[in-house]
Amino acid sequence: MTPVSQDELRAWSRYVYAVCGVHLDDSKGYLIETRLDPLLRETGSATFSELHYKVKADTSLVLRRKVVDAITTGETSFFRDASPFELLKHKIIPDLIDRRRKVLGSGRPVPIRIWSAACSSGQEAYSIAIVLKELLGSFHGYDIRVLGTDISDKAVASASYGHYNKLELERGMPSDKMQAYFSAVNGAWKVRDDIRALVSFRTLNLLEPLAFPVRHDIVFCRNVAIYFTEPDRARLFENLGRVMAPDGYLIIGATESLTGLCPQFEARRYLRSVFYQLRVGL
């Protein structure tokens, strides 16, 4: 594997930060070496400096997209960390439906908008859809939309395709759910159509200004902010707060916290889980 020098690391750190907001400090040389080595070989570059030049000179932005795909590819699995999905099933969705029905009455469908930010290859978004199916049974009387977004075009394409190999499914997916919500197709497993119909995907940079036609009732943004600087973490959650319903819910990673970072959010606890809501009046 081609080594990266400190000067090359600093140049790449500036570039990566500029295109996707991920902060790479001086200890992250191994990440550049492992994530970008395939692209270095693909482009016939002898050094990471040469690759850096080629990426910046590529007016088609194809190489830029490949860099973003490589750097932002994260760890993911179905039902990763069970607590958020238990929280969704037993607390958030029932409470949300009760409040919406009091406002809408019994004759109108209850709208539920859920956003899986930084969805990677779609496992979190589909896990959310499965929870909704198991909780509600029929979707009659509901208007449900689950949105998955990621900065990586490759990840979004994979999520939209909705096909997974056996290893990807077995990482977090109980066998009964695997049989119930996936169909075997040409050696892979395809998300069942009624689950797939709930979910849409698009490419999105979370640090840029966000615009949606409706506000989100629930936002999953787990293990994303850890890759950002503190000012960018604050900007990220400010962006999310602007597109959330006033009584919406924000779910972040188990090791993350908004305490002292985003005063507009208030932490709330349910059993062993923590979620956040916007403070009233802020």
Reading off the top of the CATH hierarchy, the class of the largest domain is best stated as: Alpha Beta
What is the string of helix and strand elements? HHHHHEHEHEHHEEHEEHEEE
Oligomer kind: single chain
* Residue windows where pLDDT falls under 50 for at least 5 positions: none
> CATH topology of the largest domain, what is it called?
Rossmann fold
Approximate helicity band: 40-55%
Report the principal-axis shape: globular
Write the CATH homologous superfamily of the largest domain: Vaccinia Virus protein VP39
What Rg is obtained from the alpha carbons, in whole angstroms? 20 Å
Described by strand count, sense and barrel closure, the largest sheet is: 5 strands, parallel
Q: Number of folding domains?
A: 2
**Spatial ordering of strands, largest sheet:** 6-2-1-7-8
Average of the residue pLDDT scores: 93
- Terminal residue distance: 51 Å
Q: Which class best fits the helix and strand makeup?
A: alpha/beta
- Please provide the count of β strands: 10
Supply the CATH architecture of the largest domain. Answer: 3-Layer(aba) Sandwich
- Estimated share of beta-strand residues: 15-25%
